[in-house]
Specification:
Order of helices and strands of chain B: EHEHHEEEHEEEHEHEHEEEEEEEEHH
Shape of chain A: globular
Number of strands of chain B: 18
Strand order of the largest sheet of chain A: 1-8
Radius of gyration of chain B: 21 Å
Number of domains of chain A: 1
CATH superfamily of the largest domain in chain B: FAD/NAD(P)-binding domain
Helix content of chain A: 25-40%
Number of strands of chain A: 8
Oligomer: heterodimer
CATH architecture of chain A: 2-Layer Sandwich
Mean pLDDT of chain B: 94
Number of helices of chain B: 9
Chain lengths: 174, 350
């Protein structure tokens, strides 16, 4: 199956908190995408980037972290021993230990929804269309279309390599 | 472009429950609540005084922040796939009151009529009035409300407002009082229309609600930023605004909001000439009642209990009309949780 990407375009994000709200709603009060506020009051949603060369998958001693057929990095909770090694290596500080399930948990690109043929809720509800979900080419096209249409000062198009880079590693928010 | 999927919790409408719900207000809270309720099998009718659904997201927030089509497609999907019926240009009101955007409604319905006709009513009418500052000269010609201005600009773009309604700001000097997101959006639009924009704020950039990031983008575009000043009066000539008289301030101890309180410095008055003045100092909730029928607090917001229900059983309220001005995401959150309450209440679980 073709790999899917969940991409947050920080240049079009308006910091409205809708992504965090709907994620919180469908995950019983545990949002997997969270808004962080910088010192100059920029609202930045951070979620799992489902890295190409995911360090959490590499470091997990029990192989509880794996990549599913859509490309989402997921956790088999029954295999997780809560050693927090994944948290130590994640450059975004994404995984967190859930006292409810007694295991590490994180964004799984709405695995349950995907099984029902739905898309990740944050992407479906983002009013600014700043969160895109789909195959790389589609995401690339939509992000560039959105930027070109609505943010004249950011009309420069991303190349495939730049998009991959910003999704996976060497990520620079500002 | 895909639309916002307000019905993000389901793929298609489930078996109907036979319950009918009226939603007053087609903004983020109303549409999201509609999306949840149709996924539970209820029939939803949405009343709104504007010509099409979307609320502030469509008619006020600038296009570069929220694409118009994103909202239009989302609302259309609710109508076509989930049989939501829209009643546009319909103002729901118990009593009398004039709000921004009233020129669009053609029909008026009393809230109590909806209460009789439906199994439950959700009020999500948002914030369609602006706060008045109350200084001498604040009623002069050339003083614009931020809502009015943004609404005219966007409404004109959408084809609902004639061109002559949008003031010609090219080369004009526009002063904006306030440093919230509305002030920033007004500054962006005025700057885009060729105005020479100056923002006046009583605290510093550190305390500005819009934040230094947004304000610095504006400054890079040539918008001037005056901090530690507060308006004292508006100077007019022949009934029209000519200048704003400001007082310098200094910051005192933190107030209830945690921000340091601005203290005016006596004798520090100075004037800045302006052609237009915009007081972007906050917006006020506009419930479809005026003093009676439903309980409101001293800020005009609808009072709701932990079930999101107003003082009348069966009438719920969500979003800015109950919470005051917040972000789109918080209105959506309130819309979702209120819809959960409505569903439970209709099933007799609440």
């Amino acid at each position: 199956m073709e790999r899917k990407y969940l991409y947050v375009d920080y240049l079009t994000c308006i910091g409205c908190e809708t992504c965090q709200t709907v994620c919180d709603f469908i995950h019983n009060g545990n949002p997997y995408i969270r808004i962080y506020v910088t010192e100059n009051k920029q609202y930045v949603p951070i979620n799992c980037k489902h890295c190409d060369d995911a360090p959490c998958i590499k470091v997990c001693p029990t192989h509880a972290i794996y990549r599913d057929e859509d490309g989402a990095v997921r956790i088999a909770e029954n295999k997780c021993i809560g050693c927090l090694a994944c948290l130590q290596v994640c450059p975004y500080g994404v995984p967190f230990y859930s006292l409810k399930v007694k295991a590490i948990t994180k964004c799984d690109m709405c695995a349950e929804r995907r099984e029902e043929g739905l898309e990740p809720a944050c992407a479906e509800m983002c009013p600014a269309e700043a969160i895109q979900y789909g195959p790389l080419e589609m995401v690339l096209e939509l992000v560039n279309e959105r930027r070109a249409k609505n943010i004249p000062e950011h009309q420069r198009e991303l190349t495939e390599e730049e998009l991959r880079k910003s999704i996976s590693s060497g990520y620079k928010v500002f | 472009m895909k639309g916002m999927k307000f019905s993000f919790l389901c793929k298609k409408k489930p078996q109907p429950t036979g319950k009918r719900i009226a939603i007053v207000g087609a903004g983020p809270a109303g549409l999201t609540a509609a999306g949840y309720l149709v996924c539970k099998g209820h029939d939803v009718d949405i009343y709104d005084k504007m010509p099409e659904p979307g609320g502030l997201m469509l008619f006020v927030i600038p296009e570069f922040r929220i694409p118009v089509e994103r909202i239009r497609f989302g609302a259309k999907e609710l109508e076509e796939e989930f049989e939501v019926t829209y009643y546009p240009r319909t103002k729901v009101m118990e009593g009398e009151r004039e709000d921004e955007g009233d020129e669009f409604y053609e029909r008026k319905i009393r809230l109590s009529e909806l209460k009789e006709k439906y199994d439950a009513v959700l009020i999500a009418t948002g914030i369609w009035n602006v706060r008045k500052i109350g200084i001498p000269g604040d009623d002069l010609e050339g003083i614009l409300s931020p809502l009015e201005l943004l609404f005219w600009i966007k409404g004109h773009k959408l084809g609902y407002v004639p061109e002559e309604k949008v003031p010609d700001l090219a080369g004009k000097k526009v002063g904006i009082i306030g440093a919230g997101l509305t002030a920033v959006d007004v500054a962006f639009e005025c700057n885009r229309l060729g105005a020479d924009v100056e923002i006046f704020y009583r605290r510093t950039i550190r305390e500005a609600p819009a934040g230094a990031y947004e304000i610095n983008i504006l400054r890079n575009r040539g918008v001037k930023w005056f901090e530690l000043v507060t308006p004292k009066s508006v100077i007019g000539e022949n009934g029209r605004v000519k200048a704003i008289e400001l007082l310098r301030t200094r910051l005192g101890e933190p107030d209830a909001t945690g921000r340091r309180r601005p203290i005016p410095i006596p004798g520090s008055e100075f004037q800045v000439p302006v052609d237009y003045l915009v007081f972007a100092i906050g917006m006020v909730s506009t419930p479809p009642v005026n003093g009676t029928y439903l309980a409101t607090d001293r800020r005009g917001r609808l009072v709701v209990d932990e079930r999101h229900m107003t003082s009348v059983e069966g009438i719920f309220a969500a979003g800015d009309v109950a919470n005051g001005p917040t972000k789109v995401g918080r209105a959506i959150k309130d819309g979702l949780y209120t819809a959960v309450s409505i569903d439970k209440w209709l099933r007799g679980e609440l």
